[in-house]
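agent> fetching stored inputs for the thymidine-5'-triphosphate docking request
agent> found them:
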Amino acid sequence: MQTVVLAAGKGTRMGPLTDNAPKPMLPVAGKPLVVHCLEHAIAAGASRLVVVVGHEADSIRTALADRNWDVPVTTVVQDELRGTADAVRTAAPELAAEPFVVLNGDVLYDEASLAELYTSGPAVGSFRVDNPSAYGVLQIEDGRVRGVEEKPADPRSNLVNTGAYVFPAAALDWLAVGESDRGERELTDVLQRTCETAEVTAVPFDRWLDVGRPWELLAANEWKLAELDRRIDGDVSPDADLRGTVVVEAGATVEPGVVIEGPTYVGEGAHVGPNAYVRGSTALGPDSRVGHAVELKNSVVMRDSAVPHLTYLGDSILGRDVNLGAGTAVANLRHDDEPVELTVKGERVSTGRRKFGIVCGDGVKTGINCTLNAGVTLSSGARVGPGETVLRDR
Ligand code: TTP
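agent> prediction call returned; pasting tokens
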């Protein structure tokens, strides 16, 4: 079935990681997030893909053009972020007058559930959560979807909207919806109209991850790293010990004395060791460096970043071109054992994680022997002096 993938958003909640890159391009187990979405869609039954891009459109267009796809993939530009219905409207000239699927490009789906959606009539993917009030809750009566209630205080079910839909061809004429209270033209209003004219089913999804905030990028990497197969194409010393599912890309080097536990991904041109301890689930980006006496765990280190010596880094995300000075230590656990909080758009929010370290924007540099507390965000280009203890964002 023809499929529209929405990837025009800014990803403001993912800041500072989206300061210089659109969210769909953030790395998940060695590939941009949006590439996972397209691969899932193709495996599930997409016959052609129209990807709606907007914010930093060129980097997404280039990344998609650089790959070989089994089905035609085109991009269209939404010049202003007017909402998800408007995004699909931008794609409409590329679509045939047939049923179509819409997927959010910043979501990870499991392929079996998505395949189930593709074989359904008008449908919406549903996912069971513990905190439905934070989502669009599906209103279901007699097995039929009647609509979506956004963030209800008193949710009637815990089945939420996954942002994955099968629309009938007629919905192509219903995309010009009015603005919602938050000033956007929403696809859920198109779904509402579909529910009024057709029988819309809820397809239960076994797994689903909306990658909106930094700890969800960590969760996305955990999910996709766990699905890798062991593959060693790089230059690995016979005195290194690679345990379990480890991928070392061509052009990467692993020096003597290194222990890498899977699932771990070592990107092209990355350099690890000597004598480093890399624990899963970790993804090292292209041309990154991890040096002597560094312990790294459950972290994402993006391209060109370096953790060169004597550092502990756990449950953290480093953007591009970050350098941690020798002896930088990162806390990833509160002594009261409460979930670590992080700042999202100016507000402290629970990550829901007992263990979470730091988020560093691009170009951050820390001096020697500094201490970074759990839940600290360092904005792009931030500097930490030698010996400093950083308890708050900067
Ligand atoms: P959102 O999650 O609403 O937006 P976002 O991804 O930009 O994130 P943030 O709120 O942190 O800024 O968007 C849902 C999906 O729809 C996402 O894949 C982006 C896409 N989208 C468009 O393609 N065009 C639009 O006009 C809007 C609002 C979203």
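agent> quick read of the result: The pocket of thymidine-5'-triphosphate is lined by residues 6-14, 23, 52, 78, 81-84, 86-87, 104-106, 184, 212 (CB under 6 Å).
agent> awaiting further instructions
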